[in-house]
């Protein structure tokens, strides 16, 4: 007979799984499914409420042992819910509540001992009005990533608070990573149209090197020989692949642009950049060679001038294009942004 798994073991397993889950995984649903066992709870849920021009709405809802129909009813109820409907503001959570496991009694104290509207008018519909609640607002800074909590008919104990608190850092890191990936995909799609004009294989990469978007040439290359392309991109990120240009899209972004320039002629893009950035003919020549992956020394040899002269031209290019470094310069040229 196998020994029983303790609640501390469950918490440690959840943290390990959140830390090691593949980038493509969405482990929050599995976490919710195990919260009843972790917290001796009757029900558990994770949800996120968004506000827009149409009002409040559920972005997602994961439940374990929750009453049937509660998600759809909650979504409808939210549209007319008053302010401070659940002891927190989804758009800007109270700093005292961020990343802290709190019980019903703690929430009542924060709310001036007034029951929130959700407890008065919504939870009674599903027999949860008299249940104790233990929940955490998982936040990154002042941004809410998820409400995660549980209900049970008996009061939660302090050890349950500690157990929920123990998984919060891993939950926050995981949910923040997922949000960054969603934003990265959205940004990659936004600039994807510009990449279609690049004749070479071009890719938008996430911070971990995964391909978020590829132009037509890039997609064709991935279809033909994905392992080799992924190996080249990884080497390019490390700076260990000659001919592979990898640069951040801008100084604030975690996204990277990767181009296989030995398959491409940057001349058409340089022609556009020359007019847009008001480059001299010599600066345009330097830009074309830099876009092909040449070092300052190689550019100097190609143009038969001193390396210090090339450095002056590169400095002027950075100034005119408002780029921070030559990697940023190459990214702007190839993406057309």
Q: How does this structure look, described?
A:
This protein is α+β, with helices and mostly antiparallel strands and 337 residues long. The chain has two domains: 7-177, Beta-Lactamase (2-Layer Sandwich); 196-335, Arc Repressor Mutant, subunit A (Orthogonal Bundle). The chain contains twelve helices and nine strands. The protein has a five-stranded antiparallel sheet with strand order 2-1-5-4-3, sandwiched between helices. A four-stranded antiparallel sheet has the order 7-6-9-8. A hairpin with a 2-residue loop joins strand 4 (132-140) and strand 5 (143-152). The N and C termini lie far apart (63 Å).
Short summary:
The protein is of the alpha+beta class and 337 residues long. It is built from twelve helices and nine strands.
